[in-house]
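anyone seen this seq b4? input:
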Amino acid sequence: MYKRQGYRLFNFGIEEPSYEPVIEPKHAGSGSLQKLPEVPGYKADTCITGYEYQEQKTAVRLWSASAGDNNPSVMPPVSFTREEEYDEFSAIMKNLSLYTNEMFAMFVVSGSPPYSFDEYAEKAEKLGAGRAVEIMQAAYERYNVFSDELKVNGKTVETDTKPCVFIEGELLVPIRFVIEGLGGSVAWNGKNKIVTGIWNDTVITLKLNSKDVIVDYEPRTVNTEIIAMNKRTYVPALFIREVFGVTVQWNQNTRIVNIIGN
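predicted toks r here
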């Protein structure tokens, strides 16, 4: 918990000599966060209440999923090779956490960093930051030895491209292998770069490098662009789930995506 001065510095930065903020919570609606007062010299921070910029929306989407969900921004469940390695990593991270928290507290109280960034980084290195990175990198590389796998109704589907990819935290799968695995059909219009898929009386039309799609002749919009990779078309798994009514399962530990037709 900060004292009043620390709270004001953390939220508003260095204030102007005549500035005296008065915080009056204003609710924009049910479930909305408080709207902060205008601060001289600062642009209204709409990222707190409205997420004005696409980068803000992307950041929220990337970090809102927990580890184990479709979130490439969170370290996957890697494993250490031996108990001594885990103990070493834990000890390093404990010391680094204490150090960074101490430096942050000093900055809040004094209003200026006690050291230059180079000195800060040098001390962090002496505490073992570089060694911690080496341990985690080795564990991550061991994790990547296992390849992704696509299953449809529990059966492994052989693909000539990546079984799945993540774009800004969203899971995408190659549409042809999914629909054909379900028993449907897919057609490709190379001239116009349009894919048409049919399964279970549902017709979808997709255009590469676009977020606009057509489902049963009605236009819709997806969050992530339809992309091509290795001459295969990838679409958001969430879109497939919504239009076809299938179940999409992603197992972070085994790195298997399973699509089940209902």
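The chain has three domains: 4-52, 83-143, 149-260. Helices lie at 4-12, 46-49, 54-64, 83-110, 117-126, 129-143, 175-182, 237-244. kinda curious what u guys think
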